[in-house]
Design goal:
The protein has 191 residues and is mainly α. Among the domains are: 61 residues; 49 residues, no CATH class. It starts with 12 loop residues before the first helix and ends in a 29-residue tail after the last helix. α1 packs antiparallel against α2, α3 crosses α4 and α6 crosses α7. It is flat, with a radius of gyration of 34 Å. Helix content is 47%, strand content 0%.
Length: 191
């Protein structure tokens, strides 16, 4: 006969509910929900149906919680042990550098930020890291408006300065009445 999986009481049921409700990370919240439902006495099959996961996922999640406590349910990817490419002082230097034009001219790109980081730290970083630091500094992707190669610059400038001249003249003369089939005049615009 298989063993019944039970939850080790690291936290009370109320604390489990509080952790579940306060969690903002979707994956972490789902793990809290699985442990919370198991602590309430639900079956593994019921929990897998509620969480839309396989029963072995539910068992593994509860076992991890039983062995390592509440820390087992946290997202371990956030602090995976890797040092950031730039410390606080270097990030401030980068933010200052981003306010000015790059050395080679043009606009700042993720490749230019990555090469800036490599020059300052001696560590080779990917362009994606350059993009991450651009976004963290508050920059976003900017693309200039498309311009047609055959556009008339003089006409565009004239339009900007005073608009285009009136092309159509309107007349507000009375519109004649039209005749019906019986020969009588119908109501028209001049009535």
């Amino acid at each position: 006969m298989p063993r019944i999986l039970e939850v080790t009481p690291h936290l009370t049921n109320e604390e489990l509910v509080d952790r579940f409700r306060s969690c903002r990370d979707a994956g972490e919240r789902l793990r809290w929900q699985a442990v919370m439902l198991k602590a309430e006495g639900r079956s593994t099959k019921d929990i897998s149906d509620i969480c839309k996961r396989r029963t072995d996922w539910v068992r593994r999640t509860v076992r991890n919680y039983n062995e390592d406590g509440p820390e087992a349910l946290l997202d371990g990817r956030k602090n995976n042990g890797r040092e950031p490419a730039l410390d606080e002082e270097m990030r401030e230097d980068l933010a200052e550098a981003l306010l000015h034009d790059p050395v080679d001219g043009g606009l700042w790109t993720s490749a230019k930020v990555a090469s800036w980081i490599e020059e300052r730290t001696g560590k080779g970083v990917h362009q994606r890291t350059g993009w991450v630091y651009l976004v963290r500094a508050g920059f976003s992707r900017q693309t200039p408006r498309p311009r047609h190669p055959d556009a008339d610059k003089e006409a565009q400038e004239a339009f900007k300065k005073g608009g285009s001249p009136a092309v159509f003249e309107t007349s507000f003369e009375n519109t004649p009445r039209r005749k019906s089939r019986s020969g009588r005049r119908t109501k028209g615009a001049s009535d």
